[in-house]
Amino acid sequence: MAWLRTIAPEEAEGRLAEYYAAAVRRAGRVFQIVRMMSLAPRLLEASMAFYQKLMLGPGDLDRSRREMLAVVVSKTNACHY
Question: Taking residues 13-17, what's their average pLDDT?
């Protein structure tokens, strides 16, 4: 497994600190998938916007079914998160 340098929540500043605060409000903590992009806040912003469109955008599937599909794909790909 590769190890990436990340910025810890207590060390975050500016826009990254805002993203981390939003993550805590949403999920109660900053998950590693978010911290993984901490050195590139613009990438984090784009990733979060993409996720929001996928999970909350218009479509025939409700959010719970979208999340269920994400879990199935992660399991199929042997992704532990």
Answer: 95
Residue 4 lies in a domain: no
Question: Residue 63 pLDDT more than 70?
Answer: yes
* 3-class DSSP string for the chain: CCCCCCCCHHHCCHHHHHHHHHHHHHHCCCCHHHHCCCCCHHHHHHHHHHHHHHHHCCCCCCHHHHHHHHHHHHHHCCCCC
In a domain, 60, yes or no: yes
Indicate the number of domains in the chain. 1
Domain that holds residue 17: 9-76
Q: What is the pTM of this model?
A: 0.73
16 has pLDDT over 90:
yes
